[in-house]
Amino acid sequence: MKKRLEAHSEFLMTLVLFIAFRLLLLILFSSFSFLTSGFQGHGYYFEMASYSDKGQYPFVHFWFEYPPVFPYIAIAIYKLTVLGKEGFEYFNRVLTLATLPFDVLMLVNVYRIARYVYTPQVATRLGWIYSLLIMPAYHAWHGPDPILVALTLQSLDWLLRGRQSASAVALALAIATKFTPVFLLGTAWRFLTKRQAVIYTAILVAIVCLIFAPFLILSPTFTLASFQSLVAVSSWATIWALLDGNFAYGNVGTMPRHFDPVQAGIPIDNPALIPGWLTILIFGVFFVFVFTRPLDRNNPRHCLVYTGSILSLFLLWSKGWSPGWATLVLPLWLLIYPNWRGVLLVLVLCFASLLDWPLTLSLSSPILYIVGVLIRAALFVLVAVDLLSELNRRAPVSGQMVE
């Protein structure tokens, strides 16, 4: 035990400081800022949870655009905090505190994956680099991203280590928190045997179905409307949004609108200029191209590179961009580029993300919105091209760090 602690002593210092940093933020920090024009991500969940006072719950009495895991965590926190008759500020901090273990798990997984793929020295370096990024700390106050990113990285870590069943369970829970991590299923199918991939998918689908099954039984209308809202929502904060002339942020309307299942299928902003089936067809071709690249299944770095490639394609295809998605991209980019290139990439992404949100929200500047979207899209294209070129080259030696 002592030798094990000594082997990780450098990282443990980073971990202790990281936890202390997050705890002090809970005491000293307020997520309110004039730059966000008063927007509070958890405020949306506070309003949603308040309907539980009337016995009304998401997926049962109204549709909700996010999967049930985080909304029901928010409701549980709401019930806990209102016992003391506290308001939003207390709810906000307790809900953020509830996601802290996942925040810590994110850091641990960055370290574990880097140590497995590279060296202990690289893993320690990535630990403190990630700890210094403010973006993950900020978005911990605005939604479920710490949970979904921690579970996605946990799934990736277990997949690398050959624990397929555990990886499938973690990914299923991540998808039931937010649908974004579904892209990792592509990695599983590429790096596992066909039989293993089928079992992996079966476990994942079974768990996701079990989570949604009670809601489908209790209220199929509002559960299906919740899925429909994701398909119908207008484009936002992407290249597609610029083409459609949309400068909003995934607007699905106010909470009262959620009590009408018909409204779930009616977009609020401009419809898509390019039909969805065409973008699926185009990016489907790209995905097949990536899927058929020569890979070394025994090389863990190739797994990271491939995952980064399909994530870039997924984000370029997606009609929307949530600001919290940056917290998923940042650790993966650092793991793929554990050097100056990675640091520069994540810094550019952080500052570009500020342009379209929250600066545009505060300054009402479409120019900032457009510049932010274009820079971010350019980054995804550059990373995708670079990673695909690496996949096309001879597989690097396992553990080799590509500068």
Structure characterization notes:
With 403 residues, the chain is mainly alpha-helical. The chain has one domain (2-30, 38-248, 263-392). The protein is 68% helix and 0% strand. It has 18 helices and no strands. The model is unreliable at 395-403 (pLDDT under 50).
Give the SSE map:
Blueprint lengths: L1 H6 L1 H20 L12 H10 L18 H14 L5 H30 L2 H12 L2 H6 L5 H16 L3 H12 L8 H8 L2 H25 L1 H13 L6 H6 L31 H16 L8 H18 L8 H11 L3 H24 L2 H27 L11
Helix pairs in contact: 2-5, 2-6, 3-4, 4-5, 5-6, 5-8, 8-9, 9-11, 10-11, 10-15, 11-12, 14-15, 15-16, 15-18, 16-17, 17-18
Helix content: 55-70%
The overall average pLDDT, rounded, is 89
- Cα gyration radius (Å): 21 Å
Number of helices: 18
Biggest sheet descriptor: none
E-strand count: 0
Which features would summarize this protein structure in a list?
0% strand, disordered C terminus, 18 helices, mainly alpha
Give a short synopsis of this structure.
The protein has 18 helices and no strands. It is an all-alpha fold and 403 residues long.
